[in-house]
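Standup, Tuesday
Yesterday: got the pipeline producing structure tokens again.
Today: sanity-check two examples.
Blockers: none.

Example 1:
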Amino acid sequence: MDSSKMEDNKDDLTTVPSQDLNHDDVFGELREDGPNYRNVGFTGTVILMMKTQIGLGVLAIPSALDVLGMVPGIICLLAMAVITTWSGYVIGTFKLRHREVYSIDDAGGIVLGLTGRGILSTGFCLCMFLHQSPLTDHFVRTYLQNLDYVFNSASAILGLSIGLNAVSTHATCTAVFAAVAAVLGCAMASIRTLGRITWLAWVGLPCILAAVIIVTVAVGLEDRPASAPMTDGPWVPDWKVAGNPTFAQGIAAVSNLLFAFSGTPGFFSIVSEMRDPRQYTSAMLTCQAGVTAVYAIVGCIIYYYCGTYVSSPALGSAGGTIKIISYAFAIPGLFVSMTIVTHIPAKFIFVHALRGSRHLTSNTLTHWVSWLGCTCGITVVAWIIASTIPAFDALVSLIGALLGPLMCMIPMGAMWLYDNWGKNNDRKKNVAWVVASFWSVALIILGTFLVVAGTYGSVMGIMDTYSKSGGSAAFSCADNSNSV
């Protein structure tokens, strides 16, 4: 190969074209009197990513291990970590090659523009290629991106209502707690830039970690889980090496594990507001390593000591005073989780509505009305979802099944194929290229399967929750902090 071809085949990710500091490919002209949308450094990026990932997902991991068993559960957890880490890497490479991309829908629009750049599964074709008209395509991409984060915001509201119930020992109607959580979350999500939200992540991440550490230590020190029956003699944990779930239960538990990493598509918005996007990959790998370690350690320890009597959310596993203390620490972290997962879809709608207009970066009346309308609108829809599906495990599983693969797996496989399939033909002889191609296609197929099968398992779980005597009901006033 001659030197010119070698130069053409070089990965262009190590060099970044010089950019006008007053102009951004996404936000347009950056004004001194407007918000600074490019002000997140390396450390802030790591913290924002970790807070996007670590939240409600970690609270569902021990119950997922109870369904699958310790060994299969940890294997599935690590598999999800590997998949989403690769997806996170693809987000960074795609963003640097396509600077105009702000969120996953922009990436989907680029991929949709050329059919035949990759080998896509039937599910991805149905989700993407059947909607070729610009209007329908924009609607579908907008719907999928926002639905994912609206459901995440709903789960944050639900988690906050559980926390407020636990700390106050159910001082008032659960529906009231959900409304209070929604109002406060909306107010914090209305902070306009991720750079200004970074300090909240510095508060929220230690709080949620402190909460899970308190419970993790407490279950190891107590003689038995809070919900375990009193018996003569010492308590013997009944954890299982391998579970024996039905198909619906097993696939729903896998969806819970995927939900724990469902903050991955938010990395698009975070890298878009980084001062130096070249630092993204290092920040993402740091985040994923830390998140996976926390999930595995916390999940294993809590499940080992609680067994089948593990609570969901896991903060209730130690019961009594420990539950109150742990939720007292967790509530600030849950509020920050809601802030981020409400801010990202609101910013998504806001940017697309005002893109190309001076109102996007100016403090005009149109700017503020549009921005507050986006944050309040997302919050209201999330509150309705949280009040309609008030069972924590059921809601988490539904999000992981219905939207996790569509946001964390399938698009990234297609994005890699779009950027690499049919280009630089000499690279097809490279083993790494062949492996990456098979990996991308396999993820599209696997993601499609998880959408169908996982949604079925999650819906069955929601139906079981409603059919049980005393089960959770929509807009209920009942205490939701004692689920097992």
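Example 2:
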Amino acid sequence: MSEPVVLVRRGAYHDSVTLMRVSRALSELPGVTAGMVAMATELNVSILRDMGFQVPDAGPSDLVIAVRADDAGPAVEEAERLLTATAQPAGTAASEQPPLTTRSAAAREPAGLVLVSTPGEYAFFEALDAVEAGLPVMIFSDGVPVEQERRLKELAEAKDVLVMGPDCGTAVIAGAGLGFANVLSPGPVGVVAASGTGAQQVTSLLDWAGVGVSHVLGVGGRDLSAEVGGLSTRRALRMLDDDPATELIVLVSKPPSPEVARSVAELPLRTPVVRALLGVNRPDAASRSAVAGPAAANPAAADPTAPDPTAPDPTAPDLTAPDLTGAAEEVLRALGRAVPEWPAWLAEPGPRPAAKTLKGLYAGGTLSAEAALLAGTGDFVDFGDDAYTRGRAHPMIDPTLRVETLSRAVETDVVLMDVVLGHGADPDPAASLAPAIARTPATVVIALIGTRGDPQDVDRQAQAFREAGASVFASNAQAARHARSLL
């Protein structure tokens, strides 16, 4: 008979990705009917209790190993072995004491960039160490208070370094991907992104069109908010403007503060900028006049011979895109490249009941926001939001919540969802999502964000989802419009 065993390791921190992989390996061992290895956050303790485990008093900095098996001893030993193996850095002697702070690590060996991926309540202090040491920092952690983010970026401005994040999920520095990153070719386009999945959508589409990138600089989803004021966005734009390999810049963001978006647009740059700011309409003469003031709106009143700055330049491209796909197309046109037909793998048509409701089950916040704007209706959930990732792996890695939600869809639903490929993401998302799609009575539409260089094999993933009954699009905007058309 299976017996439950619950062990608590005080102060033994491991990141959520490691714990998810160890949990998966533990659950697949012979004789194990249930297994989970997790930090004892409130959410994880609740999940363990729902699984029937009695969890002793423990806090978020404590590790819990829970196993139900015919013989739990070997399973616990294997979990401990896997945790020890992942905790020992490659090439480090067991007797060598690792540095205990970011500052001491930077002093031991020179670094060009610091990556912070700790629980959000501790990330500020590690990032502060990096900034004070004069090093740029990428903060993968979420859950960092906005006041701390503002303070870090003000200090970074004084130190002349870039803070990427908090909640910066994607960056590509000179071809090296950090966080969730697609395999991209080198090229002339630089990206500044207050959105990880937004950057992945634009750069993946550019890759389909044969255009590569110089750098992708994530700045965190709140950077263009009124509270933060675009501090990292301005610095990142100036850095790419000074980069000789960057011929054109794309600025991607979730809906920004209008005042901050306006001030960033006024930054003097030599390099042209394509703006993909969700919720911001294309500029017209009226809006430009309102920003410039009455004299600029009617320059003839001051000087009849002066050119009208509000008049459109017929030789200049309109560089504010309506959506992320539109941004990629604006880039191609600005570079003198043809806009291709974006890939799509449509499901076989068949008899279906009339759809009445649209449900968005997204892993990417910006992709969810874009789809909601374009669909104009429906109930959209961003499973990558802090409320869903606290104490568990991001949905780009762990499909559990979306698989469970798919099981509750009904035949009159259209389900619109994203699947994001690349390094750091689920190595085979179709393995778990495609069977769930095949079982659901709903009509499923997928935005598949990835490139042909990604390790998951984008064509194989698309075909698996299509065979499960989903229609698949490389463009999230096209997927959203297709889903809306089914209602």
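Quick observation on example 2: Residues 282-319 have pLDDT under 50 and may be disordered. The chain has four domains: 3-87, 102-277, 285-334, 344-485.
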